[in-house]
Each structure stands twice: as structure tokens, then as C-alpha cells.
Design goal:
Blueprint lengths: L9 E7 L5 E9 L2 E8 L13 E7 L5 E7 L5 E9 L6 E8 L12 E7 L6 E7 L5 E8 L5 E7 L13 E7 L5 E7 L5 E8 L5 E7 L12 E7 L5 E7 L5 E10 L5 E9 L13 E8 L4 E7 L5 E8 L4 E11 L4 E14 L4 E7 L12 E8 L4 E8 L15 E8 L10 E7 L3 E3 L4 E4 L4 E8 L6 E8 L7 E10 L2 E6 L6 E3 L2 E3 L6 E3 L5 E4 L4 E5 L5 E6 L4 E8 L6 E2 L27 H6 L4 H5 L36 H13 L5 H14 L3 H17 L5 E2 L4 E6 L15 E3 L6 E6 L3 E6 L7 E11 L12 E6 L2 E7 L22 E2 L8 E11 L5 E8 L5 E11 L1
Parallel strand pairs: 31-44
Antiparallel strand pairs: 1-28, 2-3, 3-4, 4-5, 6-7, 7-8, 8-9, 10-11, 11-12, 12-13, 14-15, 15-16, 16-17, 18-19, 19-20, 20-21, 22-23, 23-24, 24-25, 26-27, 27-28, 29-30, 29-42, 30-31, 32-33, 32-43, 33-34, 34-35, 35-36, 36-37, 38-39, 39-40, 40-41, 41-42, 45-55, 46-47, 47-55, 48-54, 49-53, 49-55, ...
Helix pairs in contact: 3-4, 4-5
Length: about 900
């Protein structure tokens, strides 16, 4: 059933009218909102009617709120037909175009004259107007601007405009003005038959394309009735070529749009409808919509025909910057079921650059007073940089959601469809991020720090549309404990896209450097788009509606993800599984969930750590490498040496961090503490700016719902024994080094008891103790040479007292009768001639005292030794 209100991807609709006839004819968008242009023959939206029919314009913001409306005209007939914007100035420039039978800022030249208005984007007030024409009928049907701010109006005339010769009947014309409203030139082209113009567009190279239909031989022999034509001019008005295509039936052309590919190749799209098989495409019956893609040299690339058994008329087309085009119009059939809809409905169809139909949408109305008057038409369409699609047209009926009321005959109608979630609309997207040194926020809202060095999977899909993003993390400025993201790599459709700090340009696509001007958008081979948002930021638009904002700062990269809710339950990686729960976000590739709080070993050093699990393999890498480089070139499995928190800052570092982050107005705990840490530790104040910007963005995206901290509390002790300097909190001090030379630890001990005493602990109810246990020599567990036992106690209460084995004998860890080495993180990795094993152990216990004494002990040994490393104590 055809919907009669918002839902699915239809985000909002606005209906405005008078007691008479009102139509929306065209729509244009900027980053400030949308401008809908048309005409009305009564007082429109509280404005004053000026004649029999007037120009109208309505401005809405992106949320659908009306900002203002205006009515312009003479005491005669005035028809607003087109609208265009130019965003290269502040304020933006807005232009209306149409035709008049009156004197619209100048004397009327004949029957109908062409009109061009520039209006203020803030109020709609007229900045200037231009009127021109011949002694006959001159009809402006479309207007556009180029990248330099020049304005082009196009239409058809029965006379001779600005001295141009008329070939007979209606000829097409194209007129150029500069941004000050000064006329530059006019070109007129025709045959002895009729040419009608319906669209005009410019490309990135300042060429102009005029589209319409001709009854003559304008660009080739006529196929039998009205044919498609497409004419290309350069910015000086020189005609480059004219192309003509058609069938034996009437082929009506209603719009043209351009796009630019990554290699700067221009594509041109023309849309309309036909009553026959067009260019060999299947004919469904009645009138079918057609879309034709041309190259910049006029070569036809492909054509598509879409329809039902009824009439399906495409009347406008828009490009989103290269990867997709959107068409709108009207149909009297349900396009999903191919059954009669009893009246004309609006439709919207999305095609990708290869001509694949991606999305079909349809909207109808109701009319309780007169069920025969429920006709809608989509007359204009535009797409903004945030994948919102706007359709302007009219309706005779009313809608059910929201409930609207028709005020007379035809009312102006404006629709907004969402093609993907909107990163700046609260609650629409799943939000995740990585920033600073680096701080990660999962899609479910868990904030934690990750200081690994190497190349890691931030996020990857396990089903649905493929999504993979990898991060390269390197030490910050020679640090042993702090890393930052310096490169990101992702797969967008079939294209491998990389962002690399310190290269110019910083972007590569499939290994080739890509330079992109601020504000420009390019399609990517295989789907998706890339937009340069500003001097330091890029937006990646994935084919599956996923979004990624990449910001290249001075020395580090930030990543901000926005994914549709349909992604829930389909992801994994360092940024979590996006299932609405934070307690299982920190999980391994195997699916094993790590209980929070995570220890240093669980984050970095264990073979079952987050770092080990999500470190990419060579065959997984999406990165570009230099000669003799691969992922291991950037890998350090021993990084970081120790965890870092605000508590580790010196008083001077803390003061700098606090002052800078307060100055930047970073407010919330999830960002403030990390801001203080970054600034204090590095001395780089730019980290505070990044924190403030990201905090604001996340607040907007989450609607005020900020990420929660990783479960757990304060780290009160950590030691990794990288230095020989004695640590006096230990009852016995020995500094050990493995024969392999890469492991430093506390030890080696024999049948000793070694104590760690901690005092003045903050208020708490729980203690988490974790450490690496190193067992060297012929530990025989429960064998004949044993038992060889090791244990740990807290305040005299045993946490573990069991046997371990490095031989063939069984052991009692983790349970009696276990095979030797069961539960070990590594075996024979340290170079001891008689064997070694390494266990990562973690204990959680109830505890409230301000003092804690840990006893580590062994007994029954006969020359075997043990040691400790990465000893960590957390309280909460």
C-alpha cells in the first residue's frame, strides 16, 4: 500500500496552500536550509497577492521548520519555475527564475518575458531583478550557478532574444549573468520545429548543459516525435555539441544533473519519460520513466527505463555529488505491486553511478471531502551533503502523518527523505569515536583508553553490508607509554581508502594520492563518496549508509563514526559490538567477553588481550606501505610499558592540563579527565581543542547522553620493573632479566615469601589484583619431584595456593589433574634452558580497609624459581 504520511525514510513533509492553485516547481539546498520555489494565484502563507499568479518561495531549515516565505509578482501572470543557490560567499546567494506577462523590474518586451531574481537568504527580500525577452513568448524553465558564482537561465522562446536568430517555433535559449546581475551573453538554438527546455546544469569545469526535447533534427535525425536533446556549452557560450535520442513516440525530458568522479571525469544525467521502448530498454506500458547517463564528450554511457502498467513520469533529477542520483515525478500505479493507485502519487528513485536502482519510495494522500482529488506530483528535487533528499511539488489531498489540511485546490508540498542516519540529529546514529592518545568510545557508549602500538581493527562487520576500519597507532613523540592514531584505512565499496598523517595530500584511494578541495565531494569506484569537510576533516560516506568523519590534527588523527541502527548486533572490534549493552563491549575476536575493569595484561600483554586479538594480520591489512614495509614494521607488542592516568601527572603537568581544558570549556567527566591527561602529559594544548570539539559533537549526536566510563575505579599501584632501581614497597628486591633478554621482572625467587604493602588507599569496596607470574626451571607440579607449589594471599587470606608444572607431570592449576601448562599465556618463550611458563592472573576481592598487604609465596622447590611482572592493583 502506498504510504500517506511520514515513515520509513520519509523524515518530514510540509504542506502550504491557499484556497486556489499553488504549486512547488523546484527546490535547492544549502547548509542553511532548503528553498522551495513555485507559484500561487492567491495570497500565499500570509503574504499579499500581487496579480493573477505570483512567484512564491519558502525557506525551511533541515528539520522542516519554516523560516520565512515570500510572494513576488506583477498585476499579470507570473510563474516561478526554478531556484538555484551559490555557497561561495557569505551570505549565500539565492536566485529565482521564471516568466511574467507583466513588468517585473523592467518593461515587458512581448507576451511572456524571462525573469531572474536574486533574494536575500535571511529574509527573502529582493536584492535585484532582471527581466528580458523578445516580442513573442519567452519561458524560463530552469536556473543554475557555476563554481564562480555566475548564473545561467534556460528556457525556450518563440522570438529572438538579445539579437539571436529564431529557427522557427520554440527555440531553446541560454542566458548568462555574472553575480552582480550583469548580462554576459545569450545563446539560442533550434530547428523549424519545436524545442522545449526543462533543465540546466553546470559541471566542475564550468561547462553548461541544457536538456529538453525537440520535434526537429537538433542533434541528429528525429526518431518520429519529440526526442531527447542535450546541448553542452562552455562558460564563454561556445556550443560544444548537441546529442539527440528518441523513440517513435513522444519522449519528454524534464531535468539534467552532473557529477564528478574521483579522477575528475564529469558525468551528465538526463531524466524524463517515454511511451515506448527507449534505447532498447524494456517498456512496461503507459508512460515509463527514463534516465540516461552521458559522458562529458556526449557519449552515451547507459540508459535505464523504469515503469509500471500505468503512467510513470520522471520530472526532475539531482546528484548527491557523484555516487548517486535521485529522480522524482509522479505515477498512477503502486510501484511495488504494479497495481493501480487510482491517482497520481509522488515517487522518488535512487540510482548509483552504474545505473543500479537502489531505492524506490512513493507517497500518496487522502481526501475525505472529495476522494477523486488526491493527485500529487514531484516537480523538483535536491540532495544535500548530509544525504537528505528534498522534493518539491504539489498535492490535491491531505496526509495522515502528520495530519494536514488542504486549503483549496493544489497546495505546495515539500518532502524530506533521509538516505542514511544524520550525524547531527540526536538519537539517529550509533556513535563511536577514537581521539587523543587515543581514547575510545564504543557504539554502546563505553569510554576507555587504548595505548597499543601497531595496526588494529577499530570496527568490522560480521554480516550485512561490509564495513572495516583499521587504525595505525604509533608512540607519541618517543614515549614508552602513550600512543596516537597516525593513519586510518577503510574499505568503501570496493575502494581501499587511507588517511595518513604527515603526507601531502593525506588521502589515498587504492594506493593513489587524492587531492580534494574543501567542500568538494567525489564518488569512489565501487560505491560511496568522499567529502572534504574543512581544512583538516573528511567525511566518508559508505554505500550502506555508514558515516566516518576523519580529522587530521597536528600529530594525531581522530575518528568519529555514525552508523544506522540497522547495524546493531552486526559489529565487532575495539569499538565494541553495538548491541545496546556496555558490559560486553570489551570482547575478543573469539567472542569471549573480558570482565571489566580490564587489567593492563588484558588490554596489552596477554596473548588473549584486546591488543593481541584485534591486531591485524598481514593478509587483513588495508594500509599502504613503503618499500620493505608491512604491518610488522609498525608493531610493538611490548607497548605500552605501563598504564598512564591523571594520577601519574606531575603537579606542573596537572596544572597545565586543568587550566587548558577549563579554558576550552571541556565540561563532562568522560572528556575532561582525558583532556587533562593529554594536555598535561604531552604539553600540547591542541588536545584540549579536539576534546571540546568532539564533546560538543557527541553531545549533539547523543542528545546529551554521554558515554559511560569503563567499569572500575582507580589504579592505586602498577609496577613493570623496567628499571633496576629498588622499589621499597616490596619486602624483598631482586631484579631479573630473562635469558631471551626481553623480559624484566621482580625475581628470581625460590621458597620465599615476598610481600607488597600498600597504604592510604582511597575509599573503596572492591580490589582487583593482577600480575604476570613467571615460572622458570623444572616445576614438576604434582609429579614425583614435587609437589611444586605457588600462591598469593591478601591480608592473610589465600587467593591461590596450587601447583604448576613445566614438565610432563600434571598440575592442580586451574583444577586438580590439569595438564602441564594449562592456562599459561606463554610456554618456553623466555629462553630458560630447563623450561619456563608465564601466567596472567587476576583476582577480585571484597575489601574496605585503607591498607592492603599482598603475600606472594612458593614452597617445595628444589632450584626452580619464580618472578612477578606487571603487578597492578585497582580499587573501586
Amino acid at each position: 500500500m502506498v504510504p500517506t504520511g511520514i515513515g520509513d525514510t520519509l523524515n518530514w513533509l510540509q504542506q502550504i496552500g491557499t484556497e486556489a492553485q499553488d504549486q512547488g516547481q523546484a527546490v535547492a539546498v544549502t547548509d542553511e536550509g532548503s528553498y522551495t520555489v513555485g507559484h500561487a494565484n492567491s495570497a500565499f502563507d500570509g503574504n499579499t497577492a500581487l496579480g493573477q499568479n505570483d512567484f512564491i518561495i519558502v525557506k525551511h531549515n533541515a528539520a522542516g521548520a519554516k523560516l520565512w516565505s515570500k510572494q513576488y509578482g506583477t498585476n499579470a501572470q507570473d510563474y516561478g519555475m526554478g531556484v538555484a543557490t551559490y555557497m561561495g560567499t557569505t551570505p549565500h546567494q539565492v536566485y529565482l527564475a521564471g516568466y511574467t506577462a507583466g513588468a517585473f523590474g523592467g518593461a515587458n518586451q512581448g507576451v511572456m518575458d524571462a525573469v531572474l531574481l536574486r533574494v536575500d537568504p535571511g529574509t527573502g527580500s529582493t536584492v535585484w531583478s532582471r527581466q528580458f525577452g523578445s516580442t513573442a513568448t519567452d519561458l524560463v524553465m530552469a536556473v543554475t550557478t557555476d563554481k564562480n558564482g555566475a548564473i545561467y537561465v534556460a528556457g525556450h522562446t518563440m522570438g529572438s532574444i538579445h539579437g539571436q536568430a529564431n529557427a522557427g517555433g520554440f527555440d531553446m535559449f541560454l542566458t548568462k549573468y555574472n553575480s552582480a546581475g550583469t548580462w554576459q551573453w545569450t545563446r539560442q538554438l533550434g530547428t523549424p520545429n519545436i524545442e522545449q527546455v526543462r533543465g540546466v546544469a553546470t559541471d566542475a569545469n564550468d561547462n553548461v548543459y541544457v536538456a529538453g526535447h525537440t520535434d526537429g533534427n537538433l542533434g541528429g535525425p528525429n526518431a518520429g516525435n519529440a526526442d531527447l536533446f542535450l546541448a553542452k556549452y562552455n562558460s564563454a557560450g561556445t556550443l560544444s555539441w548537441v546529442k539527440q535520442m528518441g523513440t517513435s513516440q513522444a519522449d519528454s525530458i524534464y531535468g539534467v544533473a552532473t557529477s564528478r568522479r574521483l579522477d575528475n571525469t564529469v558525468d551528465v544525467y538526463v531524466v524524463g519519460y517515454t511511451g515506448a521502448s527507449f534505447d532498447g530498454q524494456p517498456y512496461a506500458g503507459g508512460l515509463d520513466a527514463i534516465v540516461v547517463k552521458f559522458a562529458a564528450d556526449g557519449t552515451k554511457v547507459w540508459s535505464r527505463q523504469m515503469g509500471s502498467a500505468g503512467n510513470d513520469m520522471a520530472q526532475a533529477i539531482a546528484s548527491d555529488g557523484g555516487a548517486n542520483v535521485y529522480i522524482t515525478g509522479r505515477t498512477n500505479y503502486d510501484l511495488d505491486t504494479n497495481t493501480s493507485a487510482d491517482s497520481d502519487n509522488i515517487f522518488m528513485v535512487k540510482y548509483d553511478a552504474a545505473g543500479t536502482k537502489l531505492v524506490t519510495r512513493q507517497l500518496g494522500s487522502v481526501n475525505a471531502l472529495d476522494p477523486t482529488k488526491v493527485m500529487e506530483s514531484g516537480n523538483g528535487i535536491a540532495a544535500d551533503i548530509n544525504d537528505r533528499v528534498y522534493i518539491a511539488g504539489f498535492t490535491e489531498g491531505e496526509f495522515t502523518n502528520p495530519t494536514t489540511m488542504n486549503t483549496g485546490e493544489k497546495d505546495v508540498l515539500l518532502l524530506q527523505y533521509k538516505d542514511g542516519c544524520q550525524v547531527n540529529t540526536p538519537g539517529e546514529c550509533g556513535i563511536s569515536y577514537g581521539w587523543g592518545d587515543p581514547h575510545l568510545g564504543t557504539f554502546d557508549g563505553l569510554a576507555y583508553d587504548f595505548q597499543g602500538v601497531g595496526e588494529f581493527i577499530l570496527v568490522e562487520s560480521i554480516r550485512g553490508t561490509p564495513l572495516t576500519v583499521q587504525a595505525r597507532m604509533r608512540p607519541w613523540n618517543g614515549s614508552n607509554d602513550v600512543s596516537v592514531m597516525t593513519a586510518l584505512a577503510t574499505l568503501v565499496g570496493s575502494s581501499r581508502v587511507g588517511f595518513y598523517l604527515g603526507t601531502n595530500p593525506p588521502v589515498k584511494v587504492n594506493g593513489a594520492a587524492v587531492s580534494l578541495a574543501v567542500g568538494n565531494t567525489v564518488p569512489l569506484p565501487g560505491g560511496g563518496r568522499l567529502r572534504r569537510k574543512d581544512a583538516s576533516s573528511y567525511i566518508v560516506y559508505y554505500p550502506g549508509h555508514d558515516r566516518l568523519i576523519v580529522t587530521l590534527n597536528n600529530g594525531y588523527i581522530d575518528a568519529n563514526f555514525a552508523l544506522p541502527t540497522s547495524r546493531q548486533g552486526t559489529l565487532r572490534g575495539l569499538l565494541g559490538n553495538y548491541n545496546g549493552k556496555t558490559n560486553d563491549d570489551l570482547a575478543l575476536r573469539t567472542g569471549a567477553v573480558l570482565a571489566q575493569p580490564l587489567t593492563f595484561a588484558q588490554l596489552y600483554t596477554s596473548s588473549s588481550s584486546m591488543a593481541a586479538s584485534w591486531r591485524i594480520k598481514k593478509e587483513e591489512s588495508l594500509f599502504d606501505y613503503g618499500q620493505n614495509e608491512d604491518t610488522w614494521t609498525f608493531t610493538d607488542v611490548n607497548f605500552p610499558w605501563s598504564p598512564i592516568s591523571v594520577a601519574d601527572l606531575t603537579p606542573a603537568q596537572l596544572e597545565l592540563g586543568l587550566a587548558t581544558c577549563r579554558e576550552r570549556k571541556v565540561k563532562t567527566a568522560a572528556f575532561f579527565d582525558r583532556c587533562v591527561l593529554d594536555v598535561g602529559l604531552t604539553g600540547v594544548k591542541d588536545f584540549a581543542l579536539t576534546a571540546a570539539l568532539l564533546e560538543g559533537q557527541i553531545l549533539t549526536q547523543r542528545g546529551g547522553d554521554l558515554p559511560s566510563q569503563e567499569q572500575g575505579g582507580k589504579r592505586v599501584y602498577f609496577a613493570n620493573f623496567q628499571s633496576e632501581e629498588p622499589r621499597r614497597e616490596w619486602s624483598e628486591w631482586r631484579w631479573g632479566k630473562s635469558p631471551s633478554g626481553d623480559k624484566f621482572f621482580l625475581g628470581e625467587f625460590g621458597n620465599n615469601t615476598v610481600d607488597l604493602a600498600l597504604t592510604k588507599l582511597p575509599a573503596h569496596s572492591t580490589v582487583v589484583v593482577s600480575f604476570d607470574l613467571i615460572l622458570a626451571g623444572t616445576w614438576d607440579g604434582d609429579g614425583s619431584a614435587g609437589p611444586h607449589s605457588w600462591g598469593v594471599a591478601a591480608d592473610g587470606k589465600a587467593l591461590l595456593d596450587t601447583t604448576f608444572s613445566n614438565t610432563d607431570s600434571k598440575q592442580s592449576y586451574p583444577s586438580r589433574g590439569s595438564l602441564p601448562g594449562t592456562g599459561a599465556d606463554a610456554i618456553d618463550s623466555l629462553g630458560y634452558s630447563k623450561g619456563d611458563s608465564l601466567y596472567r592472573l587476576k583476582f577480585t576481592l571484597s575489601h574496605k580497609s585503607a591498607d592492603l598487604k599482598l603475600n606472594f609465596f612458593a614452597y617445595g622447590l628444589k632450584g626452580e624459581t619464580w618472578g612477578l611482572d606487571n603487578v597492578e592493583v585497582l580499587v573501586y
